[in-house]
Amino acid sequence: MGNCCSSGSKKSSADTDCATNIPKTAYCPVDGQSCRSVELRTVLHHLKRPHANRPATQGYYFCDNKECDVVYFGQDGTVITRHDVRSEVGQKSSSPDRVICYCFGITEREVLGETDHQPGSSAKEFVIEQTRLHNCACDVRNPSGRCCLKDFPKAKPLPS
For the segment 44-88, what is each residue's pLDDT rounded down to a tens digit? Predict the structure, then answer.
């Protein structure tokens, strides 16, 4: 492990978040895929009944494999599946109606159906602008805990 934590810095080493000392990645207990860490508050906001389940304070990870039912898993072996979260997880769906921007409710179908290509008129450009203005809440609203902009290029044209 690097010494980023010893200097009092919040910068992270290659594999550990120095602010929390939680590994940045872990392997999904079901599919074995490498998954990135996600904050507890993100997990809490997506659980159907967080008050009843009371997830432990620990490292959690988001599994984005569409074929796997696991959405989150914890360092203690806790597994949270699609059935345990409030809404469909867009990253786990192939539907054109899947949400790709949780902050502003933008679906893949909306983006693919855009025909007005004037500068500044696309949904992606809107999200870029709102992100620049700090008007997004991806760290909580997006189940992955990360910015949705990386999901936009994955959109493919709808069949005619």
Answer: 999 998 877 777 878 999 999 999 999 999 999 999 999 999 999
> Does residue 37 sit within a domain?
yes
**Token representation of residue 65:** 């494999």
Considering the domain architecture, whether residues 77 and 129 belong to the same structural domain is answered as no
Task: Evaluate if residue 37 carries a pLDDT over 80.
Answer: yes
22 vs 3: CA distance, rounded Å? 14
3-state secondary structure of 140: helix
Residue 11, in any domain of the structure: no
Q: How many helices (H) and strands (E) does the chain have?
A: 5, 9
Contact 158, 109 (CB under 8 A): yes
Residue linked to tokens 């999901």: 151
Domain range for 147: 90-154
Contact between 86 and 47 under an 8 Å Cβ cutoff? The reply is yes
- SS3 call for 150: helix
Closest CA to 57 of 41, 45, 46: 41
Is there a domain that residue 60 lies in? yes
